[in-house]
Amino acid sequence: MEVKTIDENTVLCIVTMLQKSVPAISTVTLVNALKAYDETGGNGAPRCETCTVKEACTILGVSRPTVARLASEGFIRRINMGHGRGVRFDRSSVYDCLKNKDGQP
What we know:
Structural class: mainly alpha
Mean pLDDT: 75
Strand order of the largest sheet: 1-3-2
Number of strands: 3
Strand content: 5-15%
Number of helices: 5
Number of domains: 2
Largest sheet: 3 strands, antiparallel
């Protein structure tokens, strides 16, 4: 799934629409709320870029079983995508693992 950001025109349109319904909220408050939503995906946690097993294998130059082992040992962060949707890996943890030649999580 591609993550898209909210552009300025969209923000202004949303602010204009919301101010008609909720005039007591300032434009700055609405813009800040939208930007916070955009950065966290609405759940309060920062979004993380993910990669597939195949991408992790390519980045690290290792096999699928090795990626699975690195995840189970805590070297890279596994993200379960939901029932039947498989797993992804936190891209930054994959690159951290690549940089860390000592093998420390």
